[in-house]
Amino acid sequence: MTDTPIALVTGAARGIGLASAEALAENGFRLVVSDIEAEGVVAAARQIGGNTMAMICDMGDPTQIGAMFDRIEAQAGPVAALVNNAGIALPGSFLDYSLDDFRKVLDVNLIGAFAATQRAARTMVERGIAGSVVNMSSVNAVLAIPAIPAYCASKGGIMQLTKAASLALAPHGIRVNAVGPGSIDTAMMAGVNADPEALKKALSRTPLGRIGTAREIADTVAFLASDKASYITGETIYVDGGRQGLNYVM
User: Fold this and answer.
1) Known catalytic residue: 151?
2) pLDDT of res. 67
3) I want to staple 40 with a disulfide (CB 3.0 to 4.6 A). Which of 13, 134, 152, 198 is the partner?
C-alpha cells in the first residue's frame, strides 16, 4: 500500500492512453495501466517506471473490470483518478453494419466506461476519496462520420454519461469530465496520415492546420485529473484544433 494517489488508465498500451499515463505520473500519481494487449501494456508499464502496475483487462467484459479493481485495491490501494481511455471503432458501411459489431463497440467504449466509473466511485465514496474520472470522448460525440456509426453513438453516450455521473457523484466531491480529441496522430489516424488526399481533407476541417499529438490530449487529461481543475465537473473539453467552430471550408 502507498500514500501516493493511484491513477488507472485503460487502453494504455500506446497512443493517448500511454501519453496520459506518463503525464499523470509526472503529476505525482502512481500509475496502473491496463489494456487487452498483454505485451504492449507490460512494455508501457516498464516505460513509465516508478512501480507502475500493468493489468490485462478486456474493457468489454464487466467481470474482468471488477476483478481488475479488486486486484488493484488489494495490491496497491484505491484508485483516486480513473481515465476511461480504452476504445474501438470497427468501421463499416451503415446499411450493412452488423448488430454484433455495434454491440462490441458499445460494450467497450460506453458500457465498459460506465462499469469502471461505477466500480471506482463505490470505493471512492466508501473511503471518502474526492477523486476524479476523465472519460475519453471525441469530436464525434457531436459531429459524425457515417462509416463509424457505433463509435459516434458510443461517444455521444460518453458525453451524457459524463454529465449524469458528475451530478450523481458531486455530493461526494468526485469530479467527472471528458476530453474530446479531434484528429490526433495515433494508430486510428495512421490510414489518413498515409493518404495525402485524406490528410488534406482532414486538415481542411482543422483551423489550426495540423494534426494534434497524443501528448496534447494527455496534458488536458492530466489537468482535469488535478486539483487545478477542482471546480470543473460534467464538462467535455474538445481538443480539436478549432474544428467545431468551423462553419464551412472556403
Assistant:
1) yes
2) 98
3) 13
